[in-house]
Input
Amino acid sequence: MKDLTTPLSEEAIAQLEVGDVITITGYIYTGRDAVLPKIVKHVEEGTLTELRIELKGSVIFHTAVSPAGVGPTSSNKLEIESSFEPLSKAGVKIHLGKGAINPETVRMLAENNAVFAIMPPVTALLESQTTEREVVCYPELGMEAFHRIKVDHYQAIIAAAKGKSIYD
Output
């Protein structure tokens, strides 16, 4: 088990291999298909700082935040998977969700020293390990707004790193 704390260093990510079990502690962002295209637009426009969003060394968890908790959504949805490249280039180091991603995305992650990690749908467990939550932007999207949450030892498995995928 490799314990990681946000923000993540380039060196910490470079040491990860497909199949590694990790824990993540610290602040992470959440987003899924409704909000990630909006965040990508802010990256392209250079307006993330206006929203108080710092992606360098960050984690993006593909989820909605509801009173019932958080749980991973499928990361291979077009709106989510198409966000991997611009967000990785902007500094995201771990994309956290579930399901297989395209080989092109696996290669792109390697080029940007970023990884994809998966976790099973364990909403009740994750809720007990989520200690803070706040809406960062797009509150009108409700549960699918862009959130910043504080987590304590979220467990995940590295599914794509260094151009390899657990699904190959």
User: Anything to note?
Assistant: The two ends are 22 Å apart (CA to CA). The chain has six helices and eight strands.
